[in-house]
Each structure stands twice: as C-alpha cells, then as structure tokens.
Specification:
The protein has about 700 residues and is α+β, with helices and mostly antiparallel strands. It has 19 helices and 21 strands. It has 4 domains: about 200 residues, Sandwich (Jelly Rolls), CATH 2.60.120.260; about 70 residues; about 40 residues; about 220 residues, 4-Layer Sandwich (Phosphatase 2c, domain 1), CATH 3.60.40.10. Helix content is about 50%, strand content about 20%.
Length: about 700
C-alpha cells in the first residue's frame, strides 16, 4: 500500500507535506471504509443494488460512500456496458484490486466492473460529483450503456494507454430516479509495478455534493499551494544563505553539506506537494520513485553534515559513508520496485549513524552540539504528536506540527553553524587584539613620526587628526596599564577592563616593594575622552611615586592635592587602594563602589563601604581604611561603578546583588573564572547594546597552602 512506500519518509523526515489533509485527497477515512466493505463482502457475497440519496451527503465530507465491491469480469466486450446485461455470474470484487483481491480471479490488466444503483428522486436530474479517489490506469465510464466519461486515454493496446492523472471531481447526472447501472471498462498496463509500489492496482470511485467539491477543491489548492510554497521558500532561503557562506569561505564545508541537505529536503517537499495534488495515480508512482532516491540522498547529506561536526572522525570513514549512500541511491533508482526493502535497511543504517554521532559528541560535551540535540528532541516530540493527532488521541493540525518540528530541526542546525562561526570570529578578534597590544609601542611611534612629517597637512584634515589623536590617547592609556597581574602560590589575581569610548576613564595598577607588600589600585576618572585619559595618566604617576612612601590615607591626601592643582574643571578621580601582605588586606576607598569580600569559612559575602570624596575634590578630606583578615578560598572583588550601573533595554539597572550571587556561588572557580562569569552576566544584561560607562573588575582569591 501507499503507506508502505512513504512510511520511512514520514517517520524520518516528518515532512509537513504528508500531514496536510483535505476532503478531496485525504484517504484516511477510506481505509476504515474499505475494511468495513471487505467484511461485508465476506459476510454478504451478493450485495445487490445499492440505494443512494441526497440525505447520504449530510456528513462532514459531503460524500456518498458507495461500496467498492462491484461485479467484475476479466476480458473485454462493449456489450457488457448494457443496462440489462445479465452479470449475475460475475465475480464480486473490490475495485482497489489489491493482491488479496487478485488471488480470487484471473486478471491480465483489462476487465469490466459493474454496479447497480437505486437512485432516489432527490438526486435525479441533478449534477453529482464523480470523485475519482484513486485511479491507476485508464478507463471508460458508462451509465446505462452510454459512455459518459473517459479517464485518461483508453486503449486495449497497453502501449497506447495514457493514464488518468487528475483528482478534479467530475460530474454525473442520473436522468431519473430508479434503477441505474454504472459500468467501468478498466485497463492497467503496469500491474506488477503498481502492486509493488502502491499496494493496489485498480481505482476507487465515490459520489459527492457537486457544489461543495467544486468550491472546496479550489480553496484547498489555493491554501495548500500557499502553505507549501511559503515553507519551500523558507527552506530555499536557508539553503541559499549557507551555500553563499560556503562560497565566501570554502574552508568551512559544513555550510555546504547543510545547504545540500536542506536543498534535498526542498526537492522532497515539493514532490510530496505534487503527490497530494495528483491523487493516487501513475504520476504519484513516478514521484514515489524520485522520493525513494531522495530520502537516501537527504540522509546521506544529513549524515555527512553530522560527521563534519565531529572533530574526531577520520576522512576515510566519512568519505566511504558518503560514497556508499550515492551508490545505494543509484541502485534503488534503477530497481525501485525490487529493492524497496534494501531502501528501508539503508535508511535505518544512516539514521542510526546520525544518532550515534550525536550521542558520541554529546558524551564528549562538544561545544554547542546540544543545540542540534535540542532540535532533534523537538522533532521527535513533533513526530509523536503527529501520530497521536492522526489516531485522534489529541487534537491539533498535523501539518502545523510537522512544519514546526521539521523547522525546529533545521533551525537548530543553522543556529549551531551560525554560533560556531561567531565564536570562531570572536576568538580571531581576541588573538588580533593580543597581537595589537604587543606591537602598540612600535605602531604608536610610527604614527607620531608620520604626524610630524605631515604637520602642515593636518590643518586640511582636522577631522582625521582628531580621530588619530583619540586612538593614540587610547593606545597610551592601555600601554600604561599592566600587561600582566602578579601571581604567587598564595594569591590569584585577575583583572578586566572595557572602555565605553575610544579613551576611557578607568584605571588599574599594582606595585610591590622589597618587603613583598603588594599594593593594588583601581580607579575611575570622571567622564571619558581625552580629559579622563589625562586624569588617569596623572593618577598613575602619583600612585607609583607615593605608594611606598606613605600609608594609603596619606597617599590619598597628597594625590588629591596634586590632581586638584591640574585645574581640570569638574574632573575627579575615584580610587580603591588595597595593600596585601600575609593574608591581610588594608583597604581604603575614595569615591568608589563597595568592595565585596566573600568568606569561604562562613559562606557569607560582605560589602565594605568606606565613604569618601573622589580625589581632586577636597584636599584634607578624612578618608578611612579597613583591615580584613583573609582565609583560604576567600575572594575580594574591586570594581568601578560601570558594572553596577549597567542599564538593559528596559532601563533596568544591573545592581550589585547579581554580582554577589556569582561570587557566592564561585566555589572552585579561579579569579579569572569569576571575572568571566561577571562578563557573561553583563553581556547578557546588555543584549548587544554598548555599555554606557567604562567597566573595570579586579578579582583577588586566596589560594590553599
């Protein structure tokens, strides 16, 4: 039967096309009717005349389900169409002509079917829809001995037969009420092939409401075509985008395999669309032949795409799998009817290989592979839901479920590729920044020399000069920062800075004296731009001059006096200074956010708040300090206000509580891990927006003995 030929496709690909139903082409209700009529044939071998009336079309489908048991005789004689011809000696047989039906008769592809109908007066002289539900050959339809229709091009010569390939409802008019005889002269020149691929060899005729089916058919075709063309268009867009990505970056072949996989799925989807419109005819049989090959090719490309994600696969193995798939597809194309079981086995093998590869990558926790795993899970859930809907266990639209689940699978694959590409680009950018930082001094000097040589031309390019000036200031600022923070067996330090403009106002530094006292500094100048950069440069100079000559509070007063003498209006410098020695930390704060101290022993986190004006605002301000004793696993976080005052798109501020949660749940993390966790928090909070202020973080963690 048709379900046998398409079962594997439906099961593996969950094509949305197979789920679409209509009153014109949906045959699910006919299968149950066939079973009932087959039972009738067994219990009542002589069915006699069949009564039909307009009341029988009151169901939702507007169909008169005339039984498919007709009187049948092999051979050919046009006299058999006569209304009063005695057919009592004929066999009673299903017009479907399944293998079970043919076991009881000797048929070589040509024969006659006759059915006696008692037409109620409600149907007399009215157009009735003659619905050809399935038709695998050509036929002539007679009413009371008069030929009223030819389905396809009928000929007793099999080579001259042109099969009927339309599902459009035809009309039949009963001239009066009472007894009428419907006779069908039928020929199928491809009996062996239709029986093998489609499960039957005959036809099925029903009667229905002409007005309903005429309007419903055009509505169905319009809706069906629109939905499928939209879905195919989306798939084509995805395939084209990834193919272009491959053309622009040929080294990344995963985009090529994914594009070929989606393109093959597009071809298969289109064929399912054509099958639904063609009905059960020879045209569908030819489409099925293509589908039998395409389902192999789709899985071959899906397998190759999956293999391309696995970094531990050998090229010989994946190439052998790819070549084998094309060989199997070619063989099945040549012998589709004989090798349909081989096709099923090949599909199961490739499906198992895809699942096996995904499981192995999930076990190895390969980065991002969970995205495809999630898509496969949604696809399987959608497949189960489709089955439950078909069996009326749950309600829903099969086509929508199948489109959504298949789309989720393709979307997950596309997202994986896009995310992997973005991650690669970020890594490359990070490496580029490292190279730029290493060569900054040389580049800066070259720019300065070039500026001196072209000094007379700078007046004609003022805008360019300002841009270059800002870049130089930023490079100068970054060069003043330590390239690497100190580390020892006792303490782990990590730092991160992100500027909001070309020249930021944040600053961090350290100094260590001969007594192994480590002094850490983190500052935040008012605003951004050149003035902020100058303030940072001055603060750095004061820090390294005064850090070991006096305590933190005295250093603050001297720095405040020096910065105030710069006469930079409304420019101030907030600063945190932390002196560390022998697990003791002396903290002084001037106009900066609280310092966070996490105690591993108590599993508590405390905010160290020391109120004080920023440096440069008042000379003799009474700054305060606090000394804390640190234990193994304790964490101290210094930060500028840029991280706390991050605003998301809803104008909500990040605050300090979310940062505290990260620190309190950082057991086992290094200082660098803690910084990265806070960075990820800020990036997620911003959702792609640029920060409105500089961000500087310094994490200190006490190691074990």
């Amino acid at each position: 039967m048709i379900t046998h030929a398409l079962l594997i496709v439906i099961t593996i690909l969950g094509s949305p096309i197979t789920g679409m139903q209509s009153a014109v082409t949906d045959t699910s209700f006919l299968e149950s009717a066939n079973e009932e009529f087959n039972q009738d044939q067994f219990l009542f071998p002589d069915l006699g005349a069949e009564l039909i009336s307009e009341d029988m079309m009151s169901n939702d489908d507007k169909i008169i389900y005339i039984r498919d048991q007709w009187r049948f005789k092999a051979g050919d004689d046009t006299n058999w169409s006569a209304k009063d011809y005695d057919d009592s000696g004929w066999d009673i047989l299903s017009t479907n002509l399944t293998q079970a039906d043919l076991a009881f008769t000797d048929w070589n592809g040509l024969g006659w079917f006759r059915k006696e109908l008692i037409v109620d007066s409600t149907l007399a002289r009215k157009p009735v829809a003659l619905i050809v539900d399935r038709h695998l050959g050509a036929s002539e339809v007679y009413l009371n001995g008069n030929k009223i229709r030819e389905l396809g091009t009928f000929s007793v010569n099999p080579d001259s037969v042109s099969a009927f390939n339309s599902n459009q409802p035809l009309t039949i008019v009963f001239p009066d009420s009472g007894r009428h005889v419907l006779a069908v002269r039928f020929i199928n020149p491809n009996v062996s092939e239709t029986g093998r691929l489609l499960g039957n060899n005959g036809f099925r005729i029903l009667l229905g409401d002409w007005d309903y089916y005429q309007s419903h058919r055009y509505s169905f075709i319009s809706k069906w075509t629109g939905v499928n063309m939209f879905y195919i268009g989306v798939l084509l867009a995805v395939a084209l985008i990834h193919f272009l990505l491959y053309l622009f970056y040929p080294i990344e072949r995963r985009n090529l395999y994914f594009s070929l996989f989606v393109a093959s799925l597009v071809a298969m989807t289109y064929l399912f669309f054509r099958i639904e419109l063609s009905g059960l005819t020879f045209e569908k049989m030819y489409h099925i032949r293509f589908i039998m090959v395409l389902e192999i090719i789709v899985l071959v490309f899906a397998t190759r795409f999956t293999h391309s994600l696995d970094k531990e696969r050998s090229n010989k193995y994946v190439n052998a799998v790819l070549l084998s798939g094309f060989i199997f597809a070619g063989i099945i194309w040549l012998f589709p009817a004989q090798l349909y079981r081989l096709r099923d086995i090949v599909i199961l093998i490739y499906l198992s290989e895809i699942l096996r590869s995904l499981v192995l990558m999930l076990k190895r926790r390969q980065q991002g592979i969970w995205m495809i795993g999630a898509g496969v899970l949604v696809f399987v859930i959608g497949l189960v839901a489709s089955i439950l809907i078909n069996y009326d266990v749950i309600s829903g639209n099969v086509s929508v479920v199948n489109m959504a689940s298949t789309g989720a699978l393709i979307f997950s694959m596309s997202v994986f590729l896009s995310n992997d590409f973005a991650t690669t680009q970020k890594n490359l950018e990070s490496k580029l920044i490292e190279v730029q930082e290493l060569s900054e001094k040389t580049i800066r000097q070259e720019k300065i020399n070039k500026e001196r040589e072209l000094e007379t031309k700078l007046l004609e390019a003022e805008n360019r000069r300002k841009t270059t000036e800002l870049e130089e200031a930023r490079s100068l600022q970054l060069s003043m920062l330590p390239k690497k923070m100190p580390s020892s067996d006792e303490i782990d330090i990590a730092v991160f800075m992100q500027t909001a403009t070309e020249v930021g106002g944040d600053y961090y530094d350290y100094s260590m004296d001969k007594n192994d006292e480590l002094v850490l500094a983190l500052g935040d100048a008012t605003g951004h731009g050149l003035k902020a950069g100058i303030m940072v440069a001055a603060a750095k100079s004061y820090f390294h001059t005064l850090v070991h000559e006096s305590d933190s509070l005295s250093m603050f007063r001297k720095m405040s006096s020096g910065l105030r003498n710069l006469n930079m209006r409304l420019m101030y410098m907030g600063m945190i200074v932390a002196r560390y020695q022998n697990r003791t930390l002396d903290i002084a704060i001037a106009g900066m956010p609280p310092v966070l101290h996490y105690s591993k022993a108590d599993h508590t986190i405390r905010q160290i708040k020391l109120k004080g004006l920023p440096l440069g605002s008042k000379v003799n301000f009474p700054y305060k300090n606090e000394i804390i004793n640190l234990g193994e696993g304790d964490i101290v976080l210094l930060m500028s206000d840029g991280i706390i005052e991050l605003f998301n798109k809803n104008r909500e501020m990040l605050g300090i509580e979310r940062i505290e949660d990260i620190i309190q749940n950082s057991n086992g993390y290094s200082a660098n891990d803690i910084i990265n966790q806070i960075r990820q928090l800020s990036e997620g909070w911003l959702s792609g927006m640029p920060p409105n202020d500089d961000i500087t973080l310094m994490a200190i963690k006490i190691k074990g003995n």
